[in-house]
Sequence to fold (274 residues):
Amino acid sequence: MIPAAFDYVRAGSAEEAISLIGQHGDEAKFLAGGHSLLPLMKLRLASPSVLIDIGRVQDLSYIRDAGDHIAIGALTRHMDVETSALLKEHVPLLACAAGQVGDPQVRHRGTMGGTIAHADPASDLPATTLALGATYVAQGPNGTREIAAADFYQGFLESALEPDEMLTEIRVPKMHGTGWSFQKFTRRAQDYAIVGVAAWRRGTESAVALVNMGSTPVLAEGVSAALAGGASVADAAELAAAESDPTHDLNASVEYRVHLAKVLVRRALEESTH
Ligand SMILES: Cc1cc2nc3c(=O)[nH]c(=O)nc-3n(C[C@H](O)[C@H](O)[C@H](O)COP(=O)(O)OP(=O)(O)OC[C@H]3O[C@@H](n4cnc5c(N)ncnc54)[C@H](O)[C@@H]3O)c2cc1C
Fold:
């Protein structure tokens, strides 16, 4: 599988990358870890005319304590998120989910910015950051703006990013003693989730987000509303698929995905109470 011909340029900073995408227009694409874009190019499902390599923009590879949240640079690799002492202390759900992405090779190459910008509903970290109420920072020719995770995912592989914008930072609120769980159901270790669940609970508050249950990551708001209203975990979990719209594929029928979502949400909520 050989991709269509493309030009290649390397950016040394976010500013240079944004200037380059402005010059090359809609046909250009950023290349971060390449672990989602290059497979699409090899299948000829994407044929950018220019690749702007941002993989060596070192000043966007960081995990910092920013008071009420942890700030993660877009070029931070999944492996750094998985092993970060700061995240294990303050946002352990995200560190755990990052450790479930693919295999070590994928986690050493793939980036936080890449997986969020790619907006694949089958990916683990878009749903996890959605459950955590994260904010994404985008930088474009006219400056920076913040986009709430809840407003970011607009369709299959479609996000609120403009073509000339680069995702530069992911801001994740600290969890403050919250119970949490990440559940991922796969046929083989290291596969994408057939269905996944990222959940947290603190008193009557909770959030539950689903992986691979629709064209975007899905927030199961009915589950949280039921729990807040005093429903049992078992009854709340029955509402797991209410907001979702899953499809069938080689791994699962729609009915099977709905069943999995209910079972995994129940497990996640039970684990989150400990
Ligand atoms: C074998 C294999 C198994 C995998 N398993 C899993 C899994 O189990 N779970 C999971 O969640 N993921 C999995 N992945 C995907 C992996 O996590 C990818 O690395 C990730 O989805 C994309 O990150 P990337 O840095 O490689 O992005 P790239 O492939 O470089 O880019 C993806 C898209 O995002 C755009 N982009 C990248 N960075 C930015 C930015 N900063 N601003 C704006 N646009 C940007 C690119 O232009 C492109 O359109 C797997 C991948 C492979 C190859």
Observations:
- The chain is about 35% helix and 25% strand.
- The mean pLDDT is 96.
- The pocket of flavin-adenine dinucleotide is lined by residues 29-37, 39, 74, 101-102, 106, 109-111, 113-115, 117-118, 123-125, 161, 166-167, 192 (CB under 6 Å).
